[in-house]
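4.2 Preliminary Data

To establish feasibility before requesting continued support, the project team ran the inverse folding procedure on a target of 209 residues. The structure was first converted into the token representation described in Section 3, and no sequence information of any kind was made available to the design step. The complete token record follows.
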């Protein structure tokens, strides 16, 4: 079944751009579906989420969703991977502690968002039960964090703040672990001054590696 709103318009330019019989995937519909996925995940969780529910929330036909992704697993993994590629901004304040503080400020704002605070723990719980989602989800989240941590560490090495050859896997754990633990596992508000204190403690720990 063809979704009329997704079909190519009957203009010469549209016919020239698309092969015969091909559907043009409208970007506004794609963005509506992506937004609906996040809202649906936050509302019902991955296990209860369905392609039909996503379509209803996005205001599109079910075929418009299936034309883009063949299952909810592929849809969610595609969105998580896209977010990982965008990644977090690479701080460049001129000091290790300053870079860490900026990273924590940006990350804390993102993790406080009600959608993120519901979606990430839900997907992690689902990954523990579902091997199909476990490895791709861990890979996407880890690569995003690793890229930022690697940049911070390498910049600090270049400035002489950290020694060359330190264990970057351990550095990643030191940089990323505490804030995620506090925000997504313990789930308690961050007290005043916490991010600055965390940046200082993390910087001291990295210097000891």
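Position-by-position output of the design step:
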């Amino acid at each position: 079944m063809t979704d009329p709103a997704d079909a190519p318009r009957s203009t010469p330019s549209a016919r020239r751009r698309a092969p015969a019989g091909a559907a043009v995937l409208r970007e506004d519909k794609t963005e509506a579906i992506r937004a609906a996925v996040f809202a649906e995940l936050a509302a019902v969780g991955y296990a209860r989420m369905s392609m039909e529910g996503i379509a209803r929330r996005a205001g599109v036909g079910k075929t418009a969703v299936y034309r883009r992704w063949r299952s909810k697993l592929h849809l969610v993994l595609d969105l998580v991977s896209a977010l990982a590629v965008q990644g977090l901004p690479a701080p460049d304040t001129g000091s290790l502690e300053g870079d860490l503080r900026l990273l924590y400020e940006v990350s804390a704002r993102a993790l406080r968002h009600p959608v993120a605070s519901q979606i990430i723990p839900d997907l992690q719980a689902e990954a523990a039960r579902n091997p199909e989602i476990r490895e791709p989800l861990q890979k996407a989240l880890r690569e995003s964090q690793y890229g930022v941590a690697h940049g911070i560490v390498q910049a600090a090495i270049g400035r002489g703040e950290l020694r060359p050859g330190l264990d970057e896997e351990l550095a990643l754990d030191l940089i990323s672990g505490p804030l995620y633990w506090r925000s997504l596992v313990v789930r308690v508000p961050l007290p005043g001054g916490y991010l600055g204190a965390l940046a200082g403690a993390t910087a001291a720990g990295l210097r000891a590696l």
